[in-house]
Design goal:
Helix content: 40-55%
Number of helices: 10
Strand order of the largest sheet: 1-2
Radius of gyration: 19 Å
Strand content: under 5%
Oligomer: single chain
């Protein structure tokens, strides 16, 4: 059992990112025993989604971030898995591949890659699933990307989709500018703030980084409602969730 791929099957519904549904279910804390019923009445459980994903896993698949989140939250203490072609993988492989993926080739300014890596980091703290060398590489990677995010944040508080091109080590291909519009700023800022909120305390930037981003998002959201286009849904949801999380942390 799996969700349809709109790009491959040329349909209007389905998953726009591979394994995004099971990753969302995992973040909601739904157990794999959660029942799922198909349109014809056939009953399955959510475990069937995970099983199909594992059996068809490819470390070079088009998008890995949501698969990484689902596996990190559902598989440990199991540290590895084997697909239907008898290829075996461990979480070290997943982390290394995510760290190797160029941010400019990933969705939403690369924020999903960093979010998935941070989920892996947090899971590893409570249920060790990474080797010591990969754990150290991951910490250094997150530190570098956090410093880059702080460096590239506009004084008004927003980020652009090409925020990562502030790195002097970026290749020429990575320095190609992404569109810079109010919509893309909203998309980038909501996503990056969500990621920064997920970081463990020892890796988080100064509170002023969060405050500036949240203030800019609140002003930008005030100009967006009521939503006029379906394209506004994704950036607005990420923006609202990031601000809501921040307010919840302040309240605590």
């Amino acid at each position: 059992m799996r969700y349809r791929d709109p790009a491959i099957q040329k349909i209007v519904n389905g998953e726009n990112h591979r394994d995004i549904c099971i990753a969302a279910f995992a973040e909601l804390g739904l157990p794999l025993s959660t029942p799922m019923t198909l349109a014809d009445g056939t009953k399955y459980s959510q475990a069937e989604l995970l099983r199909d994903s594992v059996e068809n896993f490819d470390i070079k698949q088009r998008e890995l971030a949501w698969t990484a989140i689902a596996y990190a939250l559902y598989l440990p203490p199991q540290r590895g898995w084997t697909n239907r072609y008898r290829e075996s993988f461990i979480f070290d492989d997943m982390a290394n591949e995510l760290m190797r993926t160029p941010l400019h080739k990933a969705s939403c300014g690369g924020a999903h890659l960093l979010y998935a890596l941070t989920v892996l980091w947090r899971v590893d703290v409570s249920a060790a699933c990474l080797s010591a060398p990969v754990r150290e590489s991951l910490m250094q990677h997150l530190q570098r990307q956090t410093a880059l995010a702080v460096k590239s944040q506009a004084k008004e508080g927003y980020w652009t989709l090409d925020w990562h091109t502030a790195d002097q080590g970026e290749s020429e291909a990575r320095r190609i500018s992404s569109p810079d519009t109010p919509s893309t700023r909203l998309l980038a800022t909501g996503h990056l703030l969500e990621w920064l909120e997920m970081l463990p305390m020892e890796l988080q930037p100064a509170p002023s980084v969060y405050r500036r981003a949240a203030r800019w998002l609140c002003a930008a959201l005030g100009e967006r409602f009521p939503l006029k286009s379906p394209d506004d849904f994704c950036p607005c949801v990420h923006a609202v969730c990031s601000v809501r999380t921040l307010l919840g942390e302040i309240g605590e």
